[in-house]
Amino acid sequence: MSVEQLPEIASARAHELIDKFTSRRITVVGDVMLDRFLIGRVSRLSPEAPVPVVVFDREEFRLGGAANVANNLRQLGASVDLIGVIGNDESGSLLKTELAARGIHGTGLITDLERRTTTKMRVVTTRNQQVARVDFESDHEVGAAVEQAIASHVEMRAKSAHVILVSDYQKGVVTRRSMASVLAFAHANGLPVIVDPKVPHIDYYAGAALVTPNHLEAESATNSHIVTHDDARRAAQALRQRIGVESVLITRGEHGMWLDHGGADGYLPTSAREVADVTGAGDTVIATLALGLAAGATMAEAARLANEAAGLVVGRFGAATVSPQELKALF
Q1: Taking 70 as the threshold, does the pLDDT of residue 307 lie above it?
Q2: Which of the pair, 274 or 34, is modelled with greater confidence?
Q3: How many domains does the chain have?
Q4: Which regions of the chain does DSSP assign to beta strands (E)?
């Protein structure tokens, strides 16, 4: 079977869509995280164990998970409402501070006294080499009261949204009931829902407009092995039919992307010039997809925009973002 590449997007059309980003509003629901970096220099090994001794230089904080998705949207010019759950702890306060510094309101964050804020602490050298990572998290599902609070925040904050974006990192916020409440609200108000999924929750997303599994997630969800574009086509079709969603976009790293959109499918070759760090690339993809659709792009056009944005961020260290000017310059 012949394999077709998705159509090109004209420069004028791409610029028209990107210029609309600043007038669009996206509601993000999902697992927020704080990325904490302890940065220092290494000159010797420890005499106690065969590990490097890192001499502390500085500490940095970045947004992770659904918070990084919100940051990507904000840096692309959109207005953002972020709904998630944090603990009553230092990391939760730091997360709110980092959000505020980027113009993202933390009023949609629900404090759950029974859990800690998901935090990934990385020990990194001044040459950007990661030595170790320590995760602080409570990944059990939130309780019924928090699920109801999430539904209430969605009803209150998504009324003026153009798209609802669900960022599922399987840290407890996206449950069967919380996802059902998001979909019910969206359908009642004519809003598309797009989801960055996790395989154990794959059946929660029925009725969404789009899910964006990566290569390994698509293989796991369809019990298949994806090597060729035809393999990706079959997996995307099977996944779309299994879940009951309108479209599936499989991100395949160096092999680009595969889009199945109601039978109209095709691939996009990777646009990455160089790869320094793939951390957060999926967040950039789904944020750009959401804004493209909110701006009136077709699914194929939105995928083109997202593919170019991802090609930029993987050339940078850590969870990076893209500006509208940088994205326009690629077209």
Answers
A1: yes
A2: 34
A3: 1
A4: 25-30, 32-45, 52-65, 79-86, 109-111, 119-125, 130-136, 163-167, 193-196, 210-211, 247-251, 257-261, 264-268
Set 31, 168, 265, 283: catalytic member:
283
Q: What is the pLDDT of residue 318?
A: 62
42 located within any domain: no
Contact 123, 46 (CB under 8 A): no
Give me the phi and psi of 150, to 5 degrees please.
-60, -45
Report if residue 125 sits inside a domain. no
Q: Residue 310, CB half-sphere, CA atoms under 13 Å: how many?
A: 29
Confirm whether 157 is domain-assigned: yes
| Residue 273, pLDDT above cutoff 80 | no
pTM (predicted TM-score) = 0.93
Measured in degrees and rounded to the nearest 5, phi and psi for residue 243 equal: -75, -40
Is residue 81 helix, strand or coil?
A: strand
What is 229-240 written as a DSSP string?
HHHHHHHHHHHH
3-state secondary structure 18-38: HHCHHHCEEEEEECEEEEEEE
Structural domain for 160, as ranges: 11-34+64-117+139-329
Q: Which of 57-61, 70-74, 218-222, 250-254 has the lowest mean pLDDT?
A: 250-254
- The CATH number of whichever domain residue 306 belongs to comes to 3.40.1190.20
pLDDT digit string, tens, across residues 65-75: 999 999 999 99
Amino acid at residue number 77: G
Distance separating the N- and C-terminal Cα atoms of the chain: 30
Tokens (6 digits) for 219: 């293989």
Q: Catalytic residue at 283?
A: yes
